[in-house]
Amino acid sequence: MIEVPDGWQHKEDSLRRSFQFADFAAAFAFMSRVAVIAEELGHHPDWSNSWNVVDISLCSHDAGGVVTERDVQLAQHINEVLS
């Protein structure tokens, strides 16, 4: 069984989390930091941004669209960006 990182929900075959920031610039800066990590891991989130909110959904498309350890690892790294 997959261990769901703090703040994330395992819903509809993905890990999901919504992040709210002070403004658009802070949200975009967060996305930029996560993008660097995703490139390093070779695993990329499905995400959207609307002003100060970033919604992220993680699943492994190459594993049939389910949550794998790679998703958990990326979620943990994303949590570290916030700390």
TL;DR of this structure?
The chain has 83 residues and is α+β, with helices and mostly antiparallel strands.
Q: What are the SSEs and their pairings?
A:
Elements: E1 9-11, E2 14-20, H1 24-41, E3 46-50, E4 53-58, H2 69-82
Antiparallel strand pairs: 1-2, 2-4, 3-4
Helix pairs in contact: 1-2
Structure, described:
- It is a single chain.
- This protein is of the alpha+beta class.
- The protein has a single domain, classed as 2-Layer Sandwich (Gyrase A, domain 2).
- The chain has helices at 24-41, 69-82; strands at residues 9-11, 14-20, 46-50, 53-58.
- The protein has a four-stranded antiparallel sheet with strand order 1-2-4-3, with helices on one face.
- Strand 1 and strand 2 (14-20) form a beta hairpin.
Structural class: alpha+beta
Query: Which CATH class is shown?
Result: Alpha Beta
**Going across the major beta sheet, what is the strand order?**
1-2-4-3
- Under the CATH scheme, the architecture is 2-Layer Sandwich
Helix content: 25-40%
The CATH superfamily name is Transcriptional coactivator/pterin dehydratase
**In what range is the share of β-strand residues?**
25-35%
Count the beta strands.
4
Number of helices: 2
Averaged pLDDT, please? 96
What are the low-pLDDT stretches, counting only 5+ consecutive residues below 50? none
The tally of domains stands at: 1
- Write down the CATH topology: Gyrase A, domain 2
The biggest sheet amounts to: 4 strands, antiparallel
The N- and C-terminal alpha carbons lie at a distance of 26 Å
Using the CA coordinates, give the radius of gyration: 12 Å
Reading the helices and strands in chain order gives: EEHEEH
General shape? globular
